[in-house]
Amino acid sequence: MLTEQKSESLEAAALAGLESVGKTALFRHLTGHQTGVETNVKGSTVTISSGALKDDSTVKIFDTPGIRFKDDSVTTRMALNQMKDLNKIILVVKASNLKDDLLVLEEQLGLRGKNVVVIATHSDKYQPNEEEKQYVRTLLNVPVVWCNSRSLSHEEQQEIGKAVQTSSVWELNNNLLSFLPSGVEGETTNWLEKLLAKPLVGPVSALFMVISMFAGPVFAAYLFSSYLQPISEKAWLNPVKESLINAPDFIQVVLIGNYGALTLGWYSFLWAFPVVFLIGLSVAVTEETGIQEHITYALNPWLMKIGLSGRDLIPVLTGFGCNVVAVMQSRTCSSCTRASCISLISFGSACSYQIGASLSLFGSAGHPLMFIPYIFLLFIVGAVHTRIWEKRSVSLAPVPSLPYLQSVTWRGVKFRLMGIMKQFLKQAMPIFIVICIVASLLEFFEVMKAMAALFSPLLTLFSLPAEAAPGVIFSIFRKDGMMVLNEGEGALLHTLETWQVFVVVYLASTLSSCLVTLFFIYKEMGLMHAFKVLGKQMTTSVISTLLLAVFLSALFH
């Protein structure tokens, strides 16, 4: 980054601060870049973004991840490394927690000799009087601006831009900073924050909120898709099939066959799109309001029992939207918990495409309510899997402050949803259409039969038919690849007993992460770690599926 900066003769300044102080929202207002959203969720910035100051294109602003006190996460190291390279630092702190935030940043960053500006955010929650502001400015002897980073006026943007241009050398130490006003952190705590902070009621309430975040959207998506499916079949899918009835066999197989790009591709879209949209909306709202971080902190004691900390739950929850994004967001985890977090994401976080596919399969089999025990089993076995394979102990990390609970900024929600929808339409669906075409070709050249024969001994172990092999095989490429089990409008599923449907969907879901997720684990953690994740997951999947098949077979006979 510095090479780029020097070649363009730009003055560079880095936004630095703890988590949840509003750096990314501030970056968005100052640069006009749409790379961040005004969220309250900790660790929302997992990479370093840059952009020129709107009012002065010669100044380049770098948005760094939030720094955590005495933390060794990848994001904290990224932020600290960036501070070493740049001489101008924009310290972003909470107005109500100014003293404590600055004490931590001074210890972490070593600011002496650097040009510094202080931006005190959340002024809507705490606005000091003019006498206190003047005292702070005099003591710090650097430009200080109070603002609300979520709704920055043009005048405030200009004031901050001027402060950045006139930054002063930092000459303080922690002894002098101790004379700053203590602030009023905690005075704005509302009833929900108090509820989630209670020892027993807090974790139970947080767990209920997590379930609600996904149960409502998933149920609504199922109702929508199940209502629309017969209508769409009658309106266009059946007419398309009839129009291609005289087409060459190869065309029929590729477009409208059991794995056809039009038939199976449409079912994938119909069942996955509503889930992606509604879960994305649910997660975005919880992030925008700041409730997500309070939920994760409340669940911290329980998560420590499986080798995770509360903040590690954020990537796990993100995994219910996209495992790849979740693996990247695990950069915010401590080095002693990141492997555990990735393990749980890989096994227990059902991505939106997996949720859509499993809903479709259970619905086609006539047992949509099986999704409820399925998703619970997935997470519980994932937790056990993580506890068995990742045995590192976790200490309770100090949390400087939790984000405020605030109203939703719908512009931020819209921006987040637009990104999710673009990813689904431009990346996920084209890949699945390719999978459909490949599956059709394999079926046309009878390779599918050979693959099924090769895989059938494993399926026999679980009392499953060899015809289920394609769904398990293609789920390794992508989780919604299990949708090939829906070929022939669910003909195979209707031949299976209820418990067999449950077992085959569970096996296809857990045998491996999708290849894209494994690739990103390799990029983040290395090749050996990716192979270890794959091997451990396959082992747990085979053993747990065998136990599940034996139990359900005995239960239903």
Give the secondary structure arrangement, pairings included:
Blueprint: H1 2-7, E1 11-17, H2 23-31, E2 49-53, E3 56-63, H3 74-85, E4 88-94, H4 98-109, E5 115-121, H5 130-140, E6 144-146, H6 154-165, E7 168-169, H7 174-177, H8 191-197, H9 201-243, H10 249-256, H11 263-289, H12 291-298, H13 300-303, H14 313-318, H15 323-329, H16 338-348, H17 352-364, H18 371-389, H19 410-444, H20 447-461, H21 469-477, H22 487-495, H23 498-510, H24 515-525, H25 527-555
Helix pairs in contact: 8-9, 9-11, 9-12, 9-17, 10-19, 11-17, 11-19, 15-24, 16-18, 17-23, 21-23, 23-25, 24-25
Give a structural overview:
The structure is a single chain. Helices cover 61% and strands 7% of the residues. With 557 residues, it is α/β, with parallel strands linked by helices. Strands 1, 2, 3, 4, 5, 6 and 7 form a seven-stranded mixed β-sheet that branches. Strand 4, helix 4 and strand 5 form a beta-alpha-beta unit. The longest helix has 43 residues.
Radius of gyration: 26 Å
Share of β-strand residues:
5-15%
Q: What composes the largest sheet?
A: 7 strands, mixed
Question: Mean pLDDT, as a whole number?
Answer: 80
Secondary structure: helix percent: 55-70%
Report the end-to-end length measured between terminal Cα atoms: 65 Å
Q: Tell me the number of helical segments per DSSP (H or I, 4 or more residues long).
A: 25
> Strand tally, please?
7
Which structural category do the helix and sheet elements fall into?
Answer: alpha/beta
Uncertain spans, ≥5 residues at pLDDT below 50?
1-8, 35-43
Shape: elongated
